[in-house]
Amino acid sequence: MDDKLLMSGLKQKEPKAFNLLFDLLYPQLQFFTEQITKDPTEAEDIAIQALVKFWEKDPADFDSFLQVRKFIFTIARNAAFDFLKKAKVQQTYIKDIAYSSTTIEEKQEDQAFYKLEMMRKVLQDQVEKLPGQCREVFRLVFIEKIPRPEVAQRLNISPGTVNVHCAQALKKLRKIFAEKELVVLYLLAALSNN
Questions:
Q1: What single string gives the DSSP state of each residue in 141-155?
Q2: What are the tens digits of pLDDT across the range 61-91?
Q3: If phi over 0 gives left and psi between -120 and 50 gives alpha, with beta otherwise, what is residue 145?
Q4: Which class for 138: exposed (0-12), middle (13-18), buried (19 or more C-beta within 10 A)?
Q5: pLDDT at 194
Q6: How far is Cα 9 from Cα 12, in angstroms, rounded to an integer?
Q7: Residues 6+ apart with CB under 8 A from 69
Q8: CA-to-CA distance for 50 and 158, rounded, in angstroms?
Q9: DSSP letters of the chain?
Q10: Can you tell me the distance from the alpha carbon of 191 to that of 123, in angstroms, rounded to the nearest whole number?
């Protein structure tokens, strides 16, 4: 498919055009963001989120495929740098905790465990509130750790749809917990290890 046909499909919000765009750009985006983040999983999420952000935008704002590509890669680059900043803050926080006295840590450990359990419960409740298929895809991918292509096959949906559901679920959860993002990211990791 040439660029003009692809742009025409994108401007008409055709899912087939988005799937083609996804197939064209996702591998490049994932590689690009992994070079920045050095984290394959985060790079995968960033690549998907960048494509979803484009899809949520009005395609009439773009005149060419080159503009679309530049927009998507800019979003991905910025998200990758944001990830690095957050990771640096998290590492500083972890180092600060390591230097605190063990007595204080022991007292706070019980409180922290209780708070984490409360946050985990809230997070699980929010996951339950996700729309049906979005919730199911989230559970299969992030909790049961089933590869995305297998999830697509299991649910009889396209791999692009699986990726869109994952990105939408993460976006909704991050929006709900915006003020406590590091805690939520930690909890998401904890949820996915169970």
A1: IIIS---HHHHHHHH
A2: 888 888 888 999 999 999 988 888 887 766 6
A3: left
A4: buried
A5: 44
A6: 5
A7: 25
A8: 18
A9: --HHHHHHHHHTT-HHHHHHHHHHHHHHHHHHHHHHH--HHHHHHHHHHHHHHHHHS-GGG-SSHHHHHHHHHHHHHHHHHHHHHHHHHHHHHHHHHHHS-HHHHHHHHHHHHHHHHHHHHHHHHHHHTS-HHHHHHHIIIIIS---HHHHHHHHT--HHHHHHHHHHHHHHHHHHTGGGHHHHHHHHHHHHH-
A10: 9
C-beta of residue 75 within 8 angstroms of C-beta of residue 48 = no
pTM of the model: 0.48
* Amino acid (1-letter code) at residue 74: T
CA distance 190 to 194: 7
